[in-house]
Specification:
This protein is an alpha/beta fold. The protein has a single domain, classed as TIM Barrel, CATH 3.20.20. It is 45% helix and 16% strand. The protein has an 8-stranded parallel barrel with strand order 1-4-5-6-7-8-9-10, surrounded by 7 helices. The protein has a two-stranded antiparallel ribbon with strand order 2-3. The mean pLDDT is 96. Bound molecules: indole-3-glycerol phosphate. The site of indole-3-glycerol phosphate (IGP) has 14 residues, from strand 10 and helix 11. The site of indole-3-glycerol phosphate has 14 residues, from strand 10 and helix 11. This is Indole-3-glycerol phosphate synthase. Its EC number is 4.1.1.48. Pathway: Amino-acid biosynthesis; L-tryptophan biosynthesis; L-tryptophan from chorismate: step 4/5. It catalyses: 1-(2-carboxyphenylamino)-1-deoxy-D-ribulose 5-phosphate + H(+) = (1S,2R)-1-C-(indol-3-yl)glycerol 3-phosphate + CO2 + H2O.
């Protein structure tokens, strides 16, 4: 039976084929080569620091989701991104998937022009074309979802991203997917507590899987952060970073909210040892 993820990916492919008719891969490659070099998302997420005593926040620009519908009317993604950066976000994630999340590459362009922090192009990456596209539009980090890719795709897409100077956030949801991420030499590994095949959220998934990720990797807790208590829970269970969408886009003062999450995370990390 087709899962939610299969349905999303079918739409992603159709939309991509339409874009390919407008901008060829050859043109994209020229644009990517002309773009300013990628920023170091690995360093921004504390990858270079062995202690990682700070909890990093990846703040997401997310207009809607298939599970919750419209989350916020974001009139000006650039202004929201500036608030995220002012609040101390280490990376800003821009959802570019159109059909289910109402995102676009135009959002990525607007955010790129507004802030200097590393950007994650958040999409369902299924084709090399999207990786060139991400770089051409100024992204520094891309998402690879293990559940949607073969081992060959995982390693080929990772290698291409690195050649273009970008980092990769490899998203997992099960023990087997973590093994596959590690085998593909992933250095930034996310555990999404939302099952993309059913859209169910189970926050306890993070604590049960985080310990399986090698210490060298940056560990990202993805989805389901509602408040500082959730942040404390993820940080106490081994998160080096959190990826937050809904709780920021739907909040009146996202800048203060990020500062609050960062403080809660640092306190929980300090209490770990
Ligand atoms: O809005 P939340 O619950 O804070 O979740 C953010 C992020 O983790 C979620 O948007 C996400 C995680 N992995 C994805 C893959 C595709 C699309 C979206 C996602």
């Amino acid at each position: 039976m087709a899962t939610v993820l299969d349905d999303i990916n079918a739409g992603v492919r159709e939309d991509m084929e339409a874009r390919k008719r407008l901008v060829s891969l050859a043109e994209l490659k020229d644009l990517a080569q002309a773009a300013a070099p990628a920023r170091d998302a690995w360093a921004a997420l504390g990858g270079t620091s062995p202690t990682r005593e700070q909890l990093k926040v990846i703040a997401e620009i997310k207009r809607r989701s298939p599970s919750k519908g419209d989350l916020a009317s974001i009139g000006d993604p650039a202004s929201l991104a500036r608030q995220y950066a002012d609040g101390g976000a280490s990376v800003i994630s821009v959802l570019t998937e159109q059909r289910r999340f109402s995102g676009s590459l135009a959002d990525l362009d607007a955010v790129r022009a507004a802030v200097d922090v590393p950007l994650l192009r958040k999409d369902f990456t299924l084709d090399e074309y999207q990786i060139w596209e991400a770089r051409a539009h100024g992204a520094d980090l891309i998402l690879l979802i293990v559940a949607a890719l073969s081992d060959t795709q995982l390693s080929d897409f990772s290698a291409l991203s690195r050649e273009l100077g970008m980092n990769v956030l490899v998203e997992t949801h099960t023990e087997d997917e973590i093994e596959r991420a590690v085998a593909a030499n992933a250095r930034i590994i996310g555990v999404n507590v939302r099952n993309l095949k059913t859209l169910d959220v189970d926050r306890s998934v993070f604590a049960s899987l985080a310990g399986l990720i090698p210490a060298e990797a940056v560990v990202v807790a993805e989805s389901g952060v509602r408040d500082a208590d959730d942040v404390t829970h993820y940080a106490a269970s081994g998160a080096n970073a959190i990826l937050v969408g809904e709780a920021l886009v739907s909040h009146a003062t996202p800048r203060e909210r990020i500062a609050e999450f960062t403080a809660a995370g640092a306190a929980a990390i300090a209490a770990r040892s």
